Amino acid sequence: MKTIPVAALIEEATKDIPGWSPQDQLLSLFTLAFSSAGLGGDILELGSWCGRSAVALGLAAKLSDKGKLHCVDLFPEKNDWYQNEDGTYSLVVSIDNRRIGAYGDQTVWAEPYLRDIAPLYERFSGTLQAFNVAMAENELTDFVTPYRADLEKFITIAPKGLELRLAFIDGDHSYSAVSKDIEIVEQFLLPGGWICFDDAFSSYEGVNQAIVESIIDSGRYSNCQQITRKFFVAQRR
Ligand SMILES: C[S@@+](CC[C@H](N)C(=O)[O-])C[C@H]1O[C@@H](n2cnc3c(N)ncnc32)[C@H](O)[C@@H]1O
């Protein structure tokens, strides 16, 4: 059988998509989402930005031909960003007359903002457009649905009877937000399903604390494992 290896496929598909997920993490995400297809259920990503990790997860849905990928993000536009007094950047988006902030506790330094974030608004009208282009170019639109929302809103508009075989948490990195996200996601996670985290046990104290309390010490998860430098997974009992 001569097919393109998935690792090469993901690398090619994501090479021009701005974002922060390295290739080893993308392949790990794909592998879990692909190999858990037998559980049934869908895949959820919280924090999609321009679609880099969503491509890996979307490919898993497509190649396994099982389930859909739901991508939840505030999808900020250029004017949603503002500069703080110390020169760093934060954002606030307005969704259904609700103002939702991000990067408030852990603001974005001017240098990475100007290097990684500002230029993408010259290429695209916003992150949702960048996301949609990435899905279309990789023929994933039939398998992936973006929601401009936080999780609280998503669960009010999610497909009825939603069940998840994998959830990837990469949204607001504060302790309170990650704890709340885990609580919400858990209601939909199938026994044997995976919950995965970016930026775990690297440089975000809030993410670490939430994982220790709500996952590792909860008794509700097995196979708690750091897979790559900043990618952590656990399996619902
Ligand atoms: C680190 S980026 C995600 C990167 C992406 N997974 C990748 O591979 O490139 C974090 C994302 O979380 C989103 N975000 C932050 N707070 C959020 C919230 N409360 N609800 C939904 N999305 C949020 C931001 O808009 C941003 O796109």
From TrEMBL:
It comes from the Bacteria. It holds the Pfam family Methyltransf_24. This is Methyltransferase family protein.
